[in-house]
Amino acid sequence: MTALSLLAFAGLCVVLALTPGPDTFLVLRYSMGRARDGFAAAAGCAVGSLAWAALVAVGLATLLEQSAELFRVVKIVGGLYLIYLGIAAFLSTRRSARAAATDAGDEDAPAVPAARRRSTSSLLAGLLSTLLNPKVGLFFLAVVPQFVSAHAGFGETMLLGVVDAVVGGLYLVGITLLASRMVAWLKRPRVTRVLERVSAGILAALGIGTVVAGAEG
Fold first, then answer.
1. Contact 16, 127 (CB under 8 A)
2. Burial of 108 (0-12, 13-18, 19+ CB in 10 A)
3. For the CA atoms of 167, 172, 176, 177, what is the dihedral angle to 10 degrees?
4. C-alpha distances in Å from residue 187, one per residue of 30, 32, 73, 179, 184
């Protein structure tokens, strides 16, 4: 694999990263609360992308390409998960709003454990969202053979996976920084709640669309 091939693949990853998808809205939603949660979600998405690259490298992901039924099941499960994330995010904004209004003075004590739980939850959400998106696996199946040698091994495929994870991760980190700066600039709880609910609604809508498309397929 040449340096030119790596640059060409990285350029393709940039184009794909700039196309909004579930990972973008997921990271945006978590970034509205804290930048750390957005970074955790971005890291989860990157790890999920690496996991798909590993599956393609060992040949397991070809099952999705060969089995329309399996692809449909994974797609529906992924859509249901997005719906769950959207509903959970909406309910979370309502709970946080009530807590801020009625229990503002007691937030300092549990802040550290709660922050850790939120970051872990964000990381897992990003990971599962990417793992349950079969289009990521099909991307590697369709694109990787164009950039590796005829007898490519596990290492070459994983190298491209790392490139994709780094490019996508950096893009999502940028989304996190932008969103957190916007929230810090606005500093209006009502505006923050609206933005969180909008992103939650988009996640749920994407999930519904995915489930419908999978059921019809």
1. no
2. exposed
3. 20
4. 16, 11, 42, 12, 5
* The two three-digit tokens of residue 69, written as one number: 């039924």
- Span 195-200, mean pLDDT? 75
Query: How far apart (Å, rounded) are the C-alpha atoms in residues 147 and 162?
Result: 14
Nearest to 96 by CA among 22, 178, 32, 36: 32
d(CA 110, CA 128) in angstroms, rounded, equals 27
Mean pLDDT for 117-141 is 85
| Distance in angstroms between the alpha carbons of the first and the last residue of the chain | 37
Q: What is the pTM of this model?
A: 0.71
Helix or strand (DSSP H, E) at 80: helix 68-102
As a whole number of angstroms, the distance between CA 83 and CA 75 comes to 12
DSSP output for 91-120: HHHHHHHHHHHH-GGG-STTHHHHHHHHHH
Residue with tokens 């971005």: 42
Q: Return the SS3 of 178.
A: helix
Assess contact for 157 and 62: CB atoms under 8 A: no
Q: What is the pLDDT of residues 144-176, one digit of tens each?
A: 777 876 666 678 888 989 999 999 999 999 999
Q: What is the Cα 9 distance to its own chain's centre?
A: 20
